[in-house]
Amino acid sequence: MKKAYKLSLIMLLAFSLVLAACGNKSNSTDNAGSGDATGGAVKSDVKIGMVTDVGGVNDKSFNQSAWEALEKVKTESGAEVKYLQSKSDQDYIPNLNQFVKGDYSLTWGIGFSLADGIATVAKQNPDAKLAIIDSVVDAPNVKSVTFSENEGSFLVGVVAGKMTKSNKIGFVGGVDSPLIKKFEVGFKAGIKAVNPDAELLVNYTGAFDKPDLGKAAAATMYNDGADIIFHAAGGTGTGVFNEAASRSNSGQTAWVIGVDKDQSLEFGDKVTLTSMVKRVDVAVEKVSKEVVDGTFAGGTEVLGLKEDGVGLADTSSKNVPADVIKLADEYKAKIVSGELTVPSE
Predict the structure, then answer these.
(1) What is the rounded CA–CA span in Å between residue 150 and residue 229?
(2) pTM for the whole thing?
(3) Does residue 26 fall inside a structural domain?
């Protein structure tokens, strides 16, 4: 009897241990801002932080591209990644410092608006590693990545110039700045290269996070006869797409040329003519992996058509005829070879 009782007790304890072990297996998922590695990657000691501009991480544009790149780095290397969203310019330095003081291996500033903040924090923390998109910060511990936006914008200008039916084309910018001017100037040059008679309507909304301003700007342009609008306005550009969709549903031709990402994936082929893709994701992934493998160094990189840093979206053929894509490719070859120089200001 005692032997049977002891055997039963042993079996009960063993079963309890099995249940306890199963119960400790966590099925929790990471929140949007941070998390451990997934996808089977070995956990790394590397921590990478990203500070957005006021457009926010869900701007459907370059902030989102940057974050998606960091999530990929996390999956492949096991690095810890996290972002902080800035609600105003006053948030930049505190947000950057939160990562630097938290001993993060690399701190990203996404957007030219963070240049002063990156410069200040880099100077105060010479041992910290920082990186910035869309601006150059001259400091030994900062990697600066910029793009030849004018070159990619030239190509979508060629598309717009060939495809407009009204000979009126719009450009909606965010903040009026040297960076966004590169989009406008390159776009206009591409239009004029193939359609000298086309008119370019320009509106700077003054913001990257105000879809209502983008919608109003687009409405004015479509009312004035534009049938294609290229936006370089971050989250404000969502309003441009919304206005185009509303008009398209009413039977009006209202095209939008997206920016930074292939925005047809977000807003559909019905209103997205093409997109000027700016490979922020490639830049963020590349530099972040340099930190992971220990090869990070300060300095500046410029990514243009030659480096595949900018260009037409791969899905362009859905709405752009083959002969127009061929023409754009011919201009691309001239730019890459140096035969043609695209203005930037």
Answers:
(1) 16
(2) 0.81
(3) no
